[in-house]
Design brief:
The chain is α+β, with helices and mostly antiparallel strands and 679 residues long. The protein folds into three domains: 2-22 and 581-677, Sandwich (Immunoglobulin-like); 28-267, alpha-galactosidase from lactobacil brevis (Beta-galactosidase, Chain A, domain 5, Distorted Sandwich), CATH 2.70.98.60; 280-368 and 396-429 and 452-580, Aldolase class I (TIM Barrel, Alpha-Beta Barrel). Strand 25 (385-386) and strand 26 form a beta hairpin.
């Protein structure tokens, strides 16, 4: 709606007529539903997975197999349920390991297939690690909330709503073997306007999910590895993707997303040294990125010293691709994981020691899975490479290959004094996986590689318990839950800098992941890198601001507005802690330069939060009014515009019902407003 006032054109925004003061803690009804589900499936006999064995459906087979169940407490909030089905004829066992959370309405499980016999098993195929049916009520229809993955085309993390009417089928999955290449593997299924279930697949490989509506009021949800058709050799064991369900009742789907975020923070986000990763400000020699492999010791230290000279306090000095022996081809010639001592005669340790002396940590880039022709691995261990001497994929399903890369990377991290391990993955592995499989072993190479990858990371984390891992796969193409339990995505997309797309990325990814990152040069309409003096604009900076932020300024430019950069960095440190709070989108996400976009992060336990609003460059609206979420209607809040304006006091009920008016005269422009509960 639009009206004209003395302040100009005003946009009044309401997302929906929803109750605004909703508790984000799980309710007793939600916890009861989760307990009921666990009792019926982990402790009872209701089916929740499926497969075909020797041409017969598992639903009929396992009823005749021996079944044993056990339960044990993992800690005060988690109970592990184990179910083992054993086929007495062939020796196949199916072990289900499920976890029931007592502090959240959440359950998860993984299947393990093992041949305990002395001969090859018959074919196991079409394994659906999640296979469940639900019914909806008499009113409404199934509505699925899901998101685009990270295709780096400007649509990254876009929220999607799909109505699943009678006889409708929706298929979603990975692309090319990278889990979030095309779509996110996270879904929120509304069964009615105030009830639903979050369904998540954790598998850094080729997963697939199908949402199949019947002609009545039911829906059938099936998910798992896309292709499984294999025999198991004697003693061999494989696992399936991780499946997660989180139930919600009451309120709306946004409240459910915040319970998910809280579960992620409580049980999933990595905690190096026992602590959640704090917001981190990074920088590297961004302007020289395309010639990184030509960089040397003096060049990297020159860039770092410029940040020190300008008084821009960093948390990490980011050393990206090209530090290894890769000349004359360039940074993408990976597979010789040795520091190029011609360019770095003192190794990287000479740089990291200096960086550490300034109170800054170091980050180093690796891409261990991809192997280029002519590198040490391709020349000396072609049998480890899917692709051989010509290069391809380091087969992490090969124990010798995994041991070698673990020892080599561990040695570099230790010897060179590296504090944060960054792993990239710039290839689609699916065709190599499948071409390596025999007709009666389809899916095995993928399983072996995925489980090897996870084991590799787990070993690195065991050896370096205070080290954070950054997951990158040409941006955010492998951000499934199994990876996000071990790492954070500091480079969420290879589509960077353009402000509208970056705003939309934050809007979408924050629904699922509490910690994420990107890069900035704080220019509203920037290409990736520029020449000449780069303008520093608040709109561009805040469009890209994330809990993990990489400064890409060309600090060789003495004419940059360093006063503004220092102020923006200080403001960023004030705002980013709110990102671990509850997240509320305050507008729709529209890829249009003529609209506003806004969101809110709220910390009800601390009684504070932040509102971030952007007026895009073609918007005619000079101000907007946003109804806030999560506040105490009986409290008073003090609202302050960052670095400007006198604090204003509002009642919680007013902010929840009438909203907060935000004015942005600039076109484009940004407003950052923090609030604090005062009474």
């Amino acid at each position: 709606m639009k009206k004209t006032t003395a302040f100009g054109t005003v946009l009044t925004v309401w997302l929906a007529a929803l109750p605004q003061a909703q508790a984000v803690s799980p309710t007793s009804a939600e916890l009861a539903e989760s307990r009921h589900w666990a009792a019926a499936h982990f402790e009872g006999s209701e089916p929740f997975f499926s497969f075909t064995y020797a041409g017969k459906p598992s639903a009929a087979l396992i009823k005749t197999w021996k079944c044993t169940r056990s339960t044990r407490a993992l800690d005060t909030s988690r109970t592990e349920h184990t179910i083992v089905y054993a086929d007495p004829q062939t020796g196949l066992t199916v072990r289900v390991v499920g976890i029931e959370y007592r502090d959240f309405p959440t359950v998860e499980w993984t299947l393990h297939f093992k041949n305990a016999g002395k001969a090859d098993t018959p074919i196991v195929e079409n394994i659906q690690s999640l296979d469940i049916r639900w019914q909806r009520g008499q009113q409404g229809e199934f509505l699925l909330h899901h998101n685009v993955g990270s295709p780096a085309d400007g649509t990254d993390y876009t929220p999607i709503e799909t109505m699943l009417g009678k006889n409708a089928t929706l298929r979603r999955g990975a692309a090319g073997g990278r889990s979030t290449n095309a779509q996110m593997s996270y879904f929120n299924l509304e069964r009615s306007h105030d009830e639903g279930v979050i369904v998540v697949v954790g598998w850094p490989g080729q997963w697939a999910a199908n949402f199949i509506r019947d002609a009545d009021r039911g829906i059938h949800v099936r998910a798992g590895q896309q292709l499984t058709h294999f025999k198991l050799l004697p003693g061999e064991e494989v696992r399936t993707p991780l499946s997660v369900l989180q139930f919600w009742k009451g309120g709306d789907w946004i409240r459910a997303q915040n319970i998910w975020r809280r579960w992620m923070i409580a049980h999933n986000v990595p905690r190096p040294g026992g602590k959640l990763p704090p917001p981190q400000l990074c920088a590297y020699c961004g302007g020289a990125y395309e010639e990184m492999y030509k960089a040397n010791h003096d060049a990297l230290l020159t860039w770092f010293k410029r940040y020190v000279e300008e008084g821009i306090k960093l948390d990490y000095w980011w050393m990206d691709a090209g530090w290894y022996k890769c000349d004359p081809v360039g940074w993408h010639k990976v597979g010789t994981w040795e520091v190029d001592t011609k360019r770095f005669p003192g190794g990287l340790r000479a740089i990291t020691d200096y960086v550490h002396s300034k109170g800054v940590k170091t980050l180093l880039w690796f891409e261990p899975e991809r192997v280029a022709e002519g590198t040490w691995l391709a020349e000396n261990r072609p049998e480890w490479i899917l692709g051989g001497r010509k290069g391809g994929l380091l087969n992490l399903g090969n124990p010798d290959a995994r041991k070698w890369i673990t020892e080599r990377v561990d040695r570099v991290l230790t010897d060179e004094g590296i504090d944060l391990y960054r792993q990239d993955f710039n290839m689609d592995p699916l065709n190599l996986w499948r071409s390596a499989d025999a007709p009666d072993r389809q899916g095995i190479t993928e399983i072996r590689h995925v489980t090897g990858l996870l084991a590799y990371w787990d070993e690195l984390r065991l050896r370096h318990p205070r080290m954070l891992i950054d997951e990158c796969a040409s941006g955010g193409r492998r951000n499934d839950l199994e990876m996000m339990r071990r790492a954070v995505p500091l480079w969420r997309s290879d589509k960077t800098m353009e402000p509208v797309g970056q705003q939309s990325m934050t809007y979408g990814i924050a629904m699922w992941l509490p910690f994420f990152g990107t890069g900035t040069i704080a220019w509203a309409d920037s290409p990736y890198f520029t020449t000449g003096v780069t303008p520093v604009e608040e709109y561009g900076f805040w469009s890209t601001a994330c809990p993990g932020l990489n400064l890409l300024f060309d600090v060789r430019e003495r004419g940059l507005d360093y006063d503004k950069i220092r102020r923006l960095a200080a403001d960023w440190r004030k705002v980013m802690p709110f990102y671990y709070g509850d997240y509320y989108p305050l507008t729709k996400d529209v890829p249009d330069n003529g609209v506003w976009i806004a969101w809110q992060f709220d910390r009800p336990e601390q009684g504070d939060g932040v509102v971030q609003a952007f007026r895009r460059k073609a918007s005619i609206y000079e101000s907007a009014r946003f109804t806030l979420r999560g506040l105490d209607p009986n409290a008073t809040y003090e609202v302050t515009e960052l670095n400007g304006g006198k604090p204003q006091r509002f009642g919680g009920k007013e902010l929840l019902e009438k909203g907060l008016r935000v004015a942005i005269p600039a076109q484009p422009g940004v407003a950052i407003l923090t609030y604090k509960k005062t009474s």
